[in-house]
């Protein structure tokens, strides 16, 4: 790619009146062919230099301009299935049209796609316009939110769901799985709504998430994506659930509902929600929803979804073979998309483990990181229980750190406040339990500290996945003590699979150095909480003034 040709063009600041604002020569001096080539080159260069896809591509800008010029007309052409000839020409770029191109893209992305009759991936969001008549308003909403190019999982998952296929999708943390299920869901709803009158609208989409924070985050993303599309989505929080229970709200008020399992089951039991019209079902963080503590609830939701046309998708960064087996049991000919390695963490996270001996050693280690400049905010610290999260919070508060704590015993308001302060940078460090380990998208977290070793390799992948998101770099440090001899093996396995052996002591790098955990032992570790010593170095009398009840 001739990057320098384009970058050096217009380097002279002498600007005659014949020259355009970007200092390029006037168009009349160039042939149409030259101009076309130059435009294509600019788009390519834009893409090559725009590592985090933060710039709007010219191609897309042009589609937007056309749209703005003739908004209504375009939409009606779209409805009639007509296409604007000019924009079709422009859309020729970044298309995947052959199996060979698909193979190349899949090698580049590290994607493995299996199943019967697999559709070609997409090379760009614009590709969706010609192949699936993607709504231009939806494309505009993507661009306005700076989603310019599809990530690997989006390239594969979106066409599968638009073709109405059941889907098992596994891709690294922070790689854009949310949009991978929201874009086709929204487009499918746009298509269905075109065929009916406003009064006949019915609830069509259901998204299940294991935590309230994640459900709310998904709904926020959905609201941004559906701007000007006349699509109603609702996060089933306490207040909305009570409106359903008192029959002040009916299912057909919404096109999509995002919820945690228990809230929904409560309404199913009271027969105040009608799920028989739902056509698209997504289980986000599916492996957690298919684990024994959630399985009964998941099953009961599934039995209320009676529409024979129901399309099901499951998404997670960690999908075990047991979960896949369960998924196959409820799906029809699903397509399986795996991005990267199933057992690995996101490759942009630098992982390290630190041996601390005992509990006292952990406090010494964290203070050492703080004092030696390794604690670059924003930082998230994970602990195994609410009591331990509270105890560490009071220790670090005593040290004068700008810190807060989130756990299941804090009120929804306190949790939301802390999250907002953390997001705006007012708060530097958030201490939490596994309640925030999955799906939560804090932008630009620099460091995740596992103060307590997570109890499974999946929990480890999700916790450290709060950093290193959307192409950014991140760091993860895990403390371990003599009590963690078995538990740390889960972490070591993920580090090995992710090529991060530099972050472990040299003697551990040899694969034969540590005996493997049996399946039984892994299961036991997941179920039981390790007994740990108290977190405290400062006598209570000294702490009194700063001690806060949390
Ligand atoms: N196509 C895109 N271009 C640029 N940024 C994107 C794109 N798709 C998603 N993102 C951004 O990437 C970040 C991570 O996305 P998302 O939360 O969907 O990740 P995820 O794969 O679901 O992660 P997790 O497994 O932790 O739930 C978000 O901030 C999102 O806005």
From TrEMBL:
The protein's UniProt keywords, in alphabetical order, are: ATP-binding, Helicase, Hydrolase, Nucleotide-binding, RNA-binding
E.C. number(s) listed in UniProt: 3.6.4.13
All residue ranges annotated as the Helicase C-terminal domain in the record: 348-512
Pfam assignment, any one:
DEAD
The UniProt entry, under SMART domains, shows: DEXDc, HELICc
Q: What class of enzyme is it?
A: hydrolase
Q: Which reaction does it catalyse?
A: ATP + H2O = ADP + phosphate + H(+)
Q: Which GO terms describe its cellular component?
A: cytosol
**Basic and acidic residues bias spans:** 15-35
| Alphabetized GO MF terms | ATP binding; hydrolase activity; RNA binding; RNA helicase activity
InterPro entries noted in UniProt: DDX52/Rok1_DEADc (IPR044764), DEAD/DEAH_box_helicase_dom (IPR011545), DEAD_box_RNA_helicase (IPR050079), Helicase_ATP-bd (IPR014001), Helicase_C-like (IPR001650), P-loop_NTPase (IPR027417)
Q: Is Nucleotide-binding among the key words of this record? A: yes
Annotated signal peptide: none
Please give the family membership noted in the entry: Belongs to the DEAD box helicase family. DDX52/ROK1 subfamily.
Protein name in the entry: RNA helicase
Please name the source species: Pichia californica
